[in-house]
Amino acid sequence: MYVLLHLQNVMRLATNAEVASAELIQSKIAGPHPSVFSLFKRFIDILGSLIGLAALTVIFVPIAIAIKLDSPGPVFYSQQRYGLLGKPFRIYKFRSMVVNADQLKSQVENEAKGLIFKNSNDPRITRVGRFLRKTSLDEFPQFWNVLKGEMSLVGTRPPTADEITLYRDHHWQRLNVKPGITGEWQVNGRSLVKDFEDIVLLDLRYQAQWHPLYDLVLIFRTFLILFTKNGAY
């Protein structure tokens, strides 16, 4: 009888542990945001990405030549990032840093707070790369990610592997939407916002205020910022 009672207690504890584990995962990523299912948002993404890729075909040759003349290495830079519900994908950009930038990262001072890395005078950024970042031209290859459905024109900043391993429960809410080329962070200071928790608040504000036309508002504000070249380095 004692053995049976002990087994029942063990099974009960195991069941409770499984339930607690499932609840923990559910609390981290509750589920997709309604914007993920919006056909209008997807239409804007496809239309915008096609326009962006058409522009990419025009600017690719001069940018590629400039990158090659400025520093040795490939024209494109790719990195694994994490998108909707934490799904990994490979992001593409024009290379704006030296080829061994990831290995040199530990030697550069982080001016930001929390799970982001920022340095206004990062020595790893090339001369051409600084211009590409200032004008956001380095991000044009991401229109391919948007067309594939891995990203959206508007969303959250896609985190890296070393960032996501340090996430707390409330950070996972950022990943209830697709990552975007632009978003609340980009139009509200971009690189001038140096506290990760402030970025999280901006991402959650986007989710709370989102409606189909809100993306168009943020895209319009992004164009205004590009013309003034504020907040990017």
Give a description of the structure.
The structure is a single chain. This protein is mostly helical and 233 residues long. It contains 9 helices and 4 strands. The strands form 2 sheets. Strands 1-2 form a two-stranded antiparallel sheet. A two-stranded parallel ribbon has the order 3-4.
Task: Describe what is shown at a glance.
The chain is mainly alpha-helical and 233 residues long. It is built from nine helices and four strands; from the N terminus they run H-H-E-E-H-H-H-E-H-E-H-H-H.
Helices and strands in order, then pairings?
Blueprint: H1 2-28, H2 39-70, E1 76-82, E2 88-94, H3 101-104, H4 127-135, H5 142-148, E3 152-154, H6 161-164, E4 180-182, H7 184-187, H8 196-209, H9 214-228
Parallel strand pairs: 3-4
Antiparallel strand pairs: 1-2
Biggest sheet descriptor: 2 strands, antiparallel
- Using only CA atoms, what is the Rg? 21 Å
The tally of strands reads: 4
Structural class, from secondary structure content? mainly alpha
Strand order of the largest sheet: 1-2
* End-to-end C-alpha gap: 70 Å
Shape estimate = globular
Number of domains: 1
Helix/strand order: HHEEHHHEHEHHH
User: What portion of the residues fall into strands of 2 or more residues?
Assistant: 5-15%
Low-confidence stretches: 1-11, 13-27
Name its key features.
single chain, 233 residues, mainly alpha, two-stranded parallel ribbon, globular
